[in-house]
Amino acid sequence: MFDIIRKSLATGIVTTDYPQTPAEVASQARGWPEIDFVKWRDARPAVAACPTGALACVDGGGTRTVKLDLAKCTFCGLCAEADTAIRMTNACELAARRKEDLLTTARYALGPAGAQGKLVATQRSPLATQPSNLDSIGTELKARIAKVLGRSLHIREVDAGSCNGCEIEIVGLNSPVYDIERFGIHFVASPRHADMLLVTGPVSRNMELALRKTYDATPDPRLVVAVGACGCSGGIFGQNYASLGGVDKVIPVDVYIPGCPPNPHALLHGILMAIGRLPEK
Amino acid sequence: MNILPELQPALADLTERFEGRIEAVHAPRPNEVYFHAQMELVPGFCAQLYKKWNGRLVSLFADDARAFAGQPSHPSEEHPPLAPRTTPPAPIPGAFHIYYVFALDAAHGFFILRVPVSPAQPEFISLTNALPAVNWQEREIQDMFGLKLEGHPNPRRCALHDDWPEVCPLRKDFDLHTVLPPFTGERHKFREVEGEGVFQVPVGPVHAGIIEPGHFLFSVAGEPVLYLQIRLFYTHKGTEKLFENMPVTHGVRLAESISGDSSFAHATAFCHAVERAANVEAPPRARALRTVCLELERVYNHIADIGAIATDVAFVVANANAMRLKERVLRLNEQLTGHRLLRGMAALGGVRFDWGAGQIEAIRQCVAWLRPEFESLVRLIRESSSTRDRLETTGILKPQTARDLGVVGVAGRASGIDHDLRRDFPHAAYDRVSFTVPVYQEGDVLRRLQVRIDEVQGALSIIEQMAVNLPAGPTRVNVPTPPANRVALGYVEGWRGEIFHWIRTAADGRLARCKIKDPSLQNWPALSEAILGNIIPDFPVVNKSFNLSYSGTDR
Ligand code: SF4
Q1: Would you say residue A5 lies in a domain?
Q2: Best to test chain A binding among B144, B187, B210, B549 (most A CBs inside 10 Å)
Q3: Which domain holds residue A121?
Q4: Is A18 within a domain?
Q5: In the predicted model, is pLDDT for residue A55 greater than 70?
Q6: Rounded distance, CA A62 to CA B315, Å?
Q7: pLDDT-derived band of residue A160, with 50, 70 and 90 as boundaries?
C-alpha cells in the first residue's frame, strides 16, 4: 500500500494540458499531405503510389480533376515520396462535422502528354484552418445537444470491424497521459448508458446488425463519431463483399475523425468538437 | 537450390517411405521444400512428420489454381525436381490446391505438401479427428472455396456466418466487389448444454470494454464455466481477396491493417514472402532496423497487456503505470517511423526510413529510462499478494492440451511449448543477437504474464544490442517483380506468436493468392479449454492473458 502511494507521489502528474497546449507530436510524425497545387505538374505518379485511393484523378473534356480525400487517407506519405509538390505535415487535428470538409478538389487544364497545365480551380477542405467552426446547418440543434451533453459525456465504443489499431489509441485516452476523465467524459459498458457512440471499422457485413442494434439502444439525444480512415470511408478496405465501407453507410454520423489510426490528440479533438468544447482559437 | 542439410534425413525418409506416391519435390529455397502428391497421401504424410520428425502443421489453406490447367506443377522449370519422378507428369486438369505447411523446428525448415482437388469432385479429407489444431482452418477452406470436408466432426460454417448466402469468396470466379443480398439465412444455432441449474450467458459481439467484437456463449452451473462456445469472424472484411486485387506494393500497407497491434510484424512477414519469391534479401542494416521495430512492437504490446491483466484483477494503479510506459514507447515509435504503431515503416526489400544519430540516441535513452521503470512496475505487481492470488492457478492450459491444439506464441510458451521462430527460423537479424526463450509448464494466467515480463526484458536487451551495433549500408534494395506462379512463405515471430504469409504470384506483378496466418487463429480454441472450471468473473483476465486478435483471425 505504502509502496503504491510512494510510487504515485514519485511519478507525479504526467497528464497533458491538451487542448490548452498544442498536440505533442514528433517532428517526424506524418499528418495530412499538403499539396502545392500551383506547382503540381502531374498528379498521376502520386495517384499511382496512393494505396487507399485517397488521392485520385480523372481526365475528361480537356481537364483533369484531382481529389484528395482525407476521409480515406492513412497518412502513409507515399504520395509525398512520389512527388515533390506534396509535403507531409505533422498536423493531426483533422476532425470535421461534414465529410465534404475533408475533401479537396483541384481542376487543371490538361497539357500535352497528360501533364497538368494551368490550375483552373481548387476547392480546399476548410480543415486545419478553422477546425472549431460549427457548420451552419443544424447549428442550433448541435448547440442544444452540446449544452445537454457537453459537461458530462458517456461514450460507448463500438468496433464495427476495425483492425484494432483505432482501439489501441482509444484505450490510450484512458491513460494518465491523456486522461479523458478530466473533461467529465468516460467510457461506459453499455449503449444504454451512452450519449455518444465512438465507432471504428469499415463496417463489416457481419457487424452491420450489431451496429444498428447498438445505435437503437442508445438513448436520444445521441452523437455518433466515426473514427479512423476506415470508420470515415472504409479506408484501405473500401467496399467489398464483406465490408460495407464507412460508418455513415449504416448510421448517421455527427463527426468524422480521420487518421489511421488517429492519435489520442486527434481523438480528443474530434470528441470535444462533437460536444462543442474546443477552445476558441 | 540446395536443401538445408538438417532437412536431408527427413526428406530421405519421406521419399523412401512414400516412394511412387510423391509426384515431385521442389525446393525454391533451402528451408522451404514442396511435395506434390494426391489427397490420399495426406494422413500418412502428416502422421510420419508428426511422429518421426517432430513436425507440426502450422498452416493449412487452399488456392484456386483451376486456371492453370495443363501445367503439372508450379514452381516449374525454375526449380527442377529434386527427387526422381516416378511417373511422367501427365498434364492434369486445372484444380484447387490444398497446402499443408509443416514446420520442422529442430531442422529449421518447412515441408509443404500440395495436393490437388478436382473441381469435378470438390472434396477433401479432414484431419481434425487426429489433429484438433486444424479444425477451424479446414472449415474456413470449406466456407471460402466451397470444397466439402469429408470426415470432419463438426463441419458447420465457421468463417462465413450461417446466414450468408451460398458463395465461395476466394474462388477466382467470385468478384471482390460482389454485392451480396441481405442476409436471410438461418442464424447460428449454438449447442445446447442442459442439466439442472445450468444456464447460458451470451456475451457480444459488442463487448463491454474497448475491444474487438466476437461472441462468447458461456454455459455455467452456478459460477463455474462448464462450456464456452466462441463465435468469431465478425470483423471479416475480405482481406485475403483484397490482396489479389491490388499491386504488391500496396499490399504492404494492407498487411499493416490485418491486425493493428501487429502492424509491423504482419507487414514484415508479407515483405519477407515477396522478397523470397523474388529471390532477394533485405540488406543487413534493414534487417537490423526490422529487428528493432519488431521488438518495439513486442515491448509496447506486452506492457499494455501486463497493465490490462492487472486491471482485470482490479489493480488499476499498475495499469496506469503500464499505460504511461507504453505511451513513451509509442512516442519513440513515432520518432523512428513517423507513426506511433510503426505503420509506414515496412517496405519491400528493407525498410522505408533510415535512422540518424539523433534517433539512435533516442532509442538508447528510451531503453535506459524504460528499464528501471519497468522493473518498478513488475515489483509493484509482484509484491501485491492479492494480485498473485487471482492470477496463479487461474485459467490453466495444460501442456498436453496446448500441444494437441497447436498453441503458439506467448500462450504456448506459458504451457511448455518451446517454439519461437526468432530462434528456430532466424529472420530479420535475430541470428545476430542473443536472447533466451522463456518457457513455463504451469500454463496459468500468472505464467502468461511472466512470459510477457521476461520477453519485455529480453526485447530491451535485443534493442540495445542492435542499437549499439547497427550495420552500415543501405536500408533497402530493389525487389524485381517476380514472374507468375512463384510461391513463397514469409514468416515473423510477432509479439503474439508466429505469423505466416504465403503467396503465389500472378502474371501482372500482382498476387494470385495471399494466405495470412495469424497466431490468434491457432490459439482461440485454447481459451475455451483454459476457462473450463473457472468462474465467469475470471473470464476477462483469462481472455486478456491470451489477448488474441479478432481482426487477425477474421481478416
Ligand atoms: S498520404 Fe498515403 S493515403 Fe494519403 S493521399 Fe498520400 S499516398 Fe494516399
Answers
A1: no
A2: B210
A3: 33-128
A4: no
A5: yes
A6: 66
A7: very high
